[in-house]
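Notes from the pairing session

We agreed to fold both candidates in a single pass and log them together. This is the raw record for the first candidate, unedited. Please don't reformat it; downstream parsing expects exactly this layout.

Candidate A
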Amino acid sequence: MALIWPARPGRHPGRGEAQEGFALLEVALPSRLDNQVDRASEGAVSVTSDRVVIGMDPHKRSATIEVMARDETVVGGGRFDTGRDGYAAMKKYASRWPNRVWAVEGCQGIGRHIAHRLLADGEQVVDVPPKLSARARVFATGQGRKTDATDAHSIALVGTRMAGLRPVVNDEHLALLRILVDRRRSLGEDHTRMVSQLHQLLLDLIPGGAKRSLSAAQAKALLATVRPRDAVGKARRRVAAELIADLERIYRRSKEADKELKDLVASTGTTLMDLHGIGPSGAARLLVEVGDITRFPNRAHFASWNGTAPIDASSGDQVRHRLSRAGNRQINRVLHIMATVQLRNPTEGRAYFDRKKASGKTSMEAMRALKRRLSDIIYRCMINDRVATAAGPGGQRETTTDSSVTGSHPPAGSSEKSLPGPAATQDRTLLPAMS
């Protein structure tokens, strides 16, 4: 199915002028360009030698698009089904603008399926972050109400005004890594759920239950000592035995998944697994979620993206920072696991944590500071890997013996906040463009 509405000159009626909001948006999202658009008598628009942006609000079974010229004139739009017929109708409708680029919201989430189909057909696609389109919607309309049409309009606005949006690329290696690391995560979630159920059953079967860290072999040995007489007890024992069998299967699959991930991550040439506390799953998750590390100008931007940078909450003479709840939570979890592993061993991370506590910080504050330092180390590691890949055979460039990446632990003099003043010479590495 396809619902196509004719183009209307100027802005959509009912969206609201919101002159102050538009001014704010122009400051936040520069690069407006002016072009001439020829309008046909029936309202259809033909754009000659001008690029148009097709903003798309994707869903599982439908996609709403709006076609916008460079002068922000809406030249077309419609709602299409994402099945074969609907997708073909959308492509046919878009073919009237040969010089086009698709701005799709959430290409790492709900928009991934349609973005990859467009890529496979040779289309140019850029990723519009949902937060950015949400801000554009508020600035453009003066309020936060949303429909599929207003979402497509705000996405098209971002695609037209914003320079530097991430182009979507079809990287089969990263796609394979994502599938395997997501599968490994689901196996871990299944393991946690089954162990919790098993603990509850053993608590009813054995006085005091079982110890916290319980393997399938230990649970099987405990269950062998239980001989219930009543029907309820027998049912509990039978279900517990089934859970143990499922756990053994999960263990085998997890081990196989870890081996496959380890080989695949090693084939990328990354040194992330050399860092203490980063395993195959963590390294794969970093590679998949980060993509091109050079899109972050420095380590502070990377820390803000993964949620380890504290948020300034100062007011007047009171200077304080608070915990960030934003950022990529999957990468934040990788950093948390890395910090926990370092705290369990006599590492520099453990010594750094102890120094923070000795300076008066609480355990939670010291943990946040440690995660911030580990974020810097991961950033430097990925930057050096990128430089080495760009340099080709012959080793890394711009890596010194006292660089923080030469070891897997935080440097002795590091802090949980970025250094004051410009740090481009330390943080930013000029790299050749990716092929």
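Candidate B (folded immediately after A)
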Amino acid sequence: MLRLALAALLLFPAVASAQQLPCSARERVLSLVIDQRGEERLATGQAARGATIDLFAAESGTWTLVLNLPDGRSCLLANGNGFTATQGLQPARGAPA
């Protein structure tokens, strides 16, 4: 995770001031997530004001959550390890899957 944070700092010098998120042109973000981390998009969803979110993950268990803005920039929201896909949608309450 530290490696991704360092890569994000080097790759994304322009930071969104309000959110303090590492943001850059979508192709640069995809290069980091897909080419460097080997992740594939597993899910996508609509967000507020024309934005979308994408969840990427790899067989190795790494995962990244990306916010795509209408102006063509994408921002790294979160990333981590230990990703496990569940069978279909899971209830939000109760024991985690």
